[in-house]
Specification:
Elements (H helix, E strand, L loop, with lengths): L1 H28 L10 E3 L4 E4 L7 E6 L11 E8 L9 E4 L8 E5 H10 L7 E12 L2 E4 L4 E6 L12 E3 L13 E2 L1 E4 L2 E8 L3 E5 L8 E5 L2 E4 L3 E2 L6 E8 L4 E14 L4 E10 L2 E9 L2 E3 L2 E3 L1 E9 L5 E7 L20 E3 L8 E2 L7 E8 L7 E6 L1
Parallel strand pairs: 2-9
Antiparallel strand pairs: 1-3, 3-6, 4-5, 4-7, 7-8, 7-9, 10-11, 10-14, 12-13, 13-18, 14-15, 14-17, 15-16, 18-19, 19-20, 19-24, 20-21, 21-28, 22-23, 24-25, 24-27, 25-26, 28-29
């Protein structure tokens, strides 16, 4: 029995020794030697790029391959630094295409705009970035023996464009409590709008309603990072507020009138008043179709009168997505009632009242709430 125990113990010791010895031998066998990148192909040195981050435009960075001594895979990053930097603390690094495998990087104008911001190049400024390539295998990182300059011209917009924007402040319908801020409607990448009422007080915008949000404010026709500013009103006024973070642009347009347009009589037959939360409403509106030789005409839409910041007035029609329509029924899809901004015209893009509305009173509700498609309702009394 003692002999068997001794043999098992000895075997265990030999196995452990063999295992550790093999590991050490394998570690010594790993070859992490690589060469540096020595040639940069694109973009050309001192290339000037006018950045358009709202588009799909991009810049391709390309270089010669580094070589691993054992012929295995080399990974790449492109490093960016200030024009006088030496890459000991680059302002930004990004893996090459193919998750770091390819010897090129396709960099969008949007990302390049962010990198320029990290390097201290301000909006509407032109500045230079230095770039190079870092080749690596395991823990062995080799900086290229060469670097180049790229000159970028930044637009007026923000480097970090929010995906959500909220209206807040004491002069807004929701008040100054951050958690109650009103979410604006996204109408495109970096573009937001809201139909709302402003009253005396302050108003501004934030990118979130929890934690520490980034705050934005209006200065003239531009959007800036900063806390809420005073509202432009002395009495409650309804506005369409449009923000474009791609260009830091703002349009504050006063809505002076919203009317129910009855096309057969070529006239506004009722005015909708602002009811709050992006909704305009007219109650107990008499509807009487117009008798024509071919039948009774029931076409309608909505006409909005607005005043721009310079005081000029203009009109917009809000009607159907279809140029022509049939009368709706109980089975008509809800999307049929969605409204779209159209050019001012007597007949085009009109809706049709349901047959039951003729010679009745109706409530007309025009809904510009930002959380859904803009739409309207006809409630027959």
């Amino acid at each position: 029995m003692k002999y068997s125990i001794f043999n098992l113990s000895s075997l265990f010791v030999l196995l452990v020794a063999f295992t550790f010895g093999s590991c050490k031998k394998d570690e010594r066998a790993i070859n992490m030697n690589i060469t540096e990148v020595s040639t940069l192909y694109a973009p050309t040195d001192n290339l000037h790029v006018k950045l358009e981050p709202a588009t799909s435009a991009s810049v391709v960075f390309e270089w010669d391959q580094a070589k691993a001594e054992d012929g295995s895979l080399v990974m790449y990053e492109v490093a960016f630094d200030k024009v006088n930097g030496d890459f000991t603390a680059p302002v930004y690094k990004m893996s090459s295409d193919g998750n770091g495998v390819q010897n090129k990087l396709t960099l969008s104008h949007k990302d390049l705009n962010r990198i320029a911001n990290f390097a201290g190049i301000q909006s509407l400024e032109t500045g230079k970035l230095r770039w190079t390539v870092l080749a690596s295998k395991g823990t062995n990182v080799k900086k290229a023996t060469v670097s180049r300059i790229i000159e970028v011209e930044r637009p007026a917009g923000f480097a970090e464009i929010p995906t959500e924007v909220y209206l807040t402040g004491s002069g807004t319908e929701a008040g100054a409590t951050l958690g109650s801020a009103i979410k604006m409607k996204s109408t495109g990448p970096g573009v937001f709008e809201i139909y709302t009422q402003l009253k005396p007080g302050t108003y501004g915008f934030v990118n979130k309603t929890t934690g520490t949000p980034t705050s934005y404010t209006i200065q003239g026709a531009f959007l800036k990072i900063g806390d809420a500013a005073a509202t432009p009103v002395t009495t409650p006024t309804v506005y369409r507020i449009e923000l474009d973070f791609n260009n830091a642009a703002v349009k504050l347009t006063e809505i002076t009138k919203v009317g129910y347009w009855f096309a057969p009589r070529n006239a506004l037959e009722a005015e909708l008043t602002y009811a709050g939360n992006g909704v305009f409403k007219a109650e107990n509106v008499p509807v009487q179709f117009k008798q024509e030789s071919w039948g009774r005409d029931e076409r309608y839409k909505f006409r909005m009168t607005l005043k721009a910041a310079d005081g000029t007035t203009f009109q917009e029609d809000w009607g159907s997505v279809n140029r022509d329509n049939s009368r709706p029924t109980a089975t008509t899809p809800a999307a049929w009632y969605n409204v779209f901004k159209q050019n001012v015209n007597q007949w085009d893009y009109t809706f049709k009242f349901p047959t039951e509305a003729d010679m009745k009173n109706v409530d007309l509700i025009l809904n510009f709430k930002p959380d859904a498609a803009y739409n309207h309702q006809v409630v027959i009394k």
